[in-house]
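Contributing: when you submit paired examples, paste them exactly as shown. First protein:
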Amino acid sequence: SNEVITPLLQGFKSHTLADQSNAALMDRVDTKFILSMSLLKAFLTELNDEYTILEQEGRRLFTYETTYFDTPDRCFYRAHHNGKLNRNKVRFRRYHDTNTAFMEVKFKNNKQRTIKKRMPLDASKPDFKNAEQFLIANLQHQVRYLETALFVKYQRITLMNKNSTERLTLDVSLNFKSTNAASQVSLPGMWIAELKRDRKPYASSFLTLIKQHQLSPVSFSKYCIGSALTDSGELKTNRFKPTLQKISRLTNIEKININT
């Protein structure tokens, strides 16, 4: 809960959004880890020497609300599930605390790099018509068929390494909701760390801690995992089984759909 997390964030020196956009990492290598909530304190305590924390208007923990779009037959989901590279994700992301919003297209290329394009939209009443040209330019022919596919909400801590182009996001309080609101899943027992950097590994205190705890990277797409968790049985999920089983161990979710 926030009462537990907020005091732990005070130990960090802060940086601003402007500092951070100097290391925007729009073309990057991402590595993700799923960790038990019981490890959050140890990590935050260890990292505050080498990292600064994003602070805006006195806040250090930010709420993100994301709406993912896909085609009626879930072509983006299936491309990811089937391991296709050169694949897209489309999302509308609202930064709750600053009331700003963007339409975003993420492209994962065949070199395993993630390239992100975004355009600002009105957060309070987004006009998706405005985003159409942007989507056509970045998605080609699939735009006509896009529909709302999943709602995701979580809180994020963003850390920046003082010594290298490395950003670390820690996501807590994950919540997924299907578009018909028939199914909602929260994951309070775990958090996701995502390491974003401009090239392959170099030593950092985060990676040292990861080694000490013998944690290995996982494949975790919020869109795909959230879709698999809230799905009523239509989607293929077998490729995500290892991640779903890991989540199942860390959280007390009974209803995790691990059928193929």
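Second protein:
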Amino acid sequence: MRILDLPDLPHRPIEAHGSRGFSVGAFGISADAHLVAVTLAPGGVIGRHPAIGRQLLVVLSGEAEVAGAEGVVRRLAAGQAAVWEPGEVHETRSAGGVSALIGEGDLDIGAPGEQVDPG
């Protein structure tokens, strides 16, 4: 077993799509999906861009404001998640800063637990 400390992952800043205060640390990548730890500094933005695959953003700490293709802004707190469909244009912002996980790719979001662990 290995223990990963998400803040200790090597992060790189991302400025694409007008993003600012945004950094990514990858820790799970395959041909079909990837899992990354992300941080948004206070006032940070992940600029509007299309999801490459189905995308799941799980807030670990802080709060985020997210919007999908329709542009409706929703607030997420720790323990909440947003899902965007492949190709859906979306954006994430945080006034106070946020730490989150993003999974993107060939994911079956909301699958019953027995599909993951049949017991």
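If you have annotations for the second protein, write them as plain sentences, like these:
The helical segments are 113-116.
The radius of gyration is 14 Å.
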